[in-house]
Amino acid sequence: MKYVLMFVDSPQFAADLAAMDEPERNRAYARVQQWFADHHDKVTHHAYLMPPDTATTLRLDRGEPLVSDGPFVEGKEVVSGYAEIEVANLDEALRVASSWPACPVVEIRPIAG
Amino acid sequence: MSQPTYAELARVVRDHAGRLAASLVHLVGDFSAAEDLVQDAIEAALTHWPVEGIPDRPDAWMYTVARRRGLDQIRREQRHRRKLALVAWPAEPPPEDRLRLIFTCCHPALPRAAQVALTLRVVCGLTTEQIARAFLVPEGTVGQRITRAKRKISDAAIPYRIPSADELGSRLSEVLAVIYLLYNEGYLSTVGDQVQSRDLADDAEFLAALLHQLMPTEPEVAGLLALIRLHRARTSARFDRDNEIVQLQHQDRSLWDHRAIAAAGRLIAQAAARRRPGPYQLQAAIVACHAEAASWEETDWTQITVLYDLLLRLAPSPVTRLHRAIALRYVSGSSVALADIDVLAGELDGYHLFHATRAELFRDLGDATQARTADERALALATNPAERSLLRHRLTWG
What we know:
The complex is a heterodimer.
Chain A: E1 2-9, H1 11-19, H2 22-38, E2 43-48, E3 56-59, E4 66-69, E5 78-86, H3 90-98, E6 105-110
Antiparallel strand pairs in A: 1-5, 1-6, 2-5, 3-4
Chain B: H1 6-28, H2 31-52, H3 58-76, H4 78-85, H5 95-105, H6 112-123, H7 128-135, H8 139-155, H9 165-187, H10 198-214, H11 219-233, H12 258-272, H13 279-292, H14 301-314, H15 318-332, H16 334-342, H17 345-348, H18 352-364, H19 368-381, H20 385-397
Helix pairs in contact in B: 1-2, 1-3, 1-5, 2-3, 3-4, 5-6, 6-8, 6-9, 7-8, 9-10, 9-11, 10-11, 11-12, 11-13, 12-13, 13-14, 14-15, 15-16, 16-18, 18-19, 19-20
């Protein structure tokens, strides 16, 4: 069963990260690296996304295609990256996700088909 | 065979439906398909048994119906063919199967309302209609909740398993929360005209007892079972002939089931011996203090206050603090208790018992005007008819 883990950042998390000094931030990144190393047998694909101000949204349901700036979801919490994992079931996906050392919210969605 | 009463019927269905569901899910390996078969068997039982009587082996009877229906499905549906073809009657499913069933129904990835509906339906064997009636929601809503939940179980691959030791704590508390919610709904219904909905309290006790039988070493499970049994042991004294609430201090204690109270006390002691205290054990111990007191005057309020302090440490909540203040009134006096709950005004302003408690404390202190204002506020917020009646009575005569 394949799932996508969507890593969601909050303003608080971004502020905390910004407030860190260099070595502290490097340790935070190292924890993320470690997490990927620990789960390398399950993670089939992953990517870190550029910040939401780099997003372009295209609406196709308004007659003319409508291009606008920013993410589709105008929330304070934004998806900052994702990983595709392959595990047996939701409990195993939960176990993998619960050790995620970075941003505060992870949405877990099964991949259809 | 004599015609069974509804209560007997409900009990037999409940005892066997969960067992049938457990073995079928295990055998079929598909939650949804198995659950449909069980529902058919339950509905057939509810149609035939009131007329024909309860068969000698209700489990075999229900299995026969499920199997017949399963065979029909094999003919009709390619999808289930392979799985259903394997189904054979197990003498008795291993107990873990029913545990798996409960943990699957109460999986935290399902919304609470769905956990409740699914548990009642799959483990207790209630029909969609019965669940809808118990919660006063449209049958279609319950049906939808169940359908969505079953789809999520299969689409998101919620496993049919008992959580491992490291996950068990939080997963078990999810299960206990569902049972406790069912019990509270049955104990004092918060909706509609029914004062008590006894069926749900029955189901909650059944589930707690089943869970205790399946997990005898879990002290919080024992605590919840004791808590439910202690409350139920006092049921016959809680309402008078006109269905009005009789408050604890005015209850006829000879109407309490003292054997059940003693048995619950032993259960609490056994759980406490495992030295893993938890909120349900502490709540049960508090209720036991009341149940074991020979009279209202002999209530051990000091002990009750101590237990509330422990409970507040494990599970801080403004409602618990409010209850502690009620005990504190008898230990330290009404003005101390009043000062203690005044700080909760912000959080509990919308809770009728907060205002009802303040009213009582003001009455103790001889402030009739403030007592009346607080009672009026409580009445405006209360929804249960018996509680409303009590408050109205107090406003008229108090």
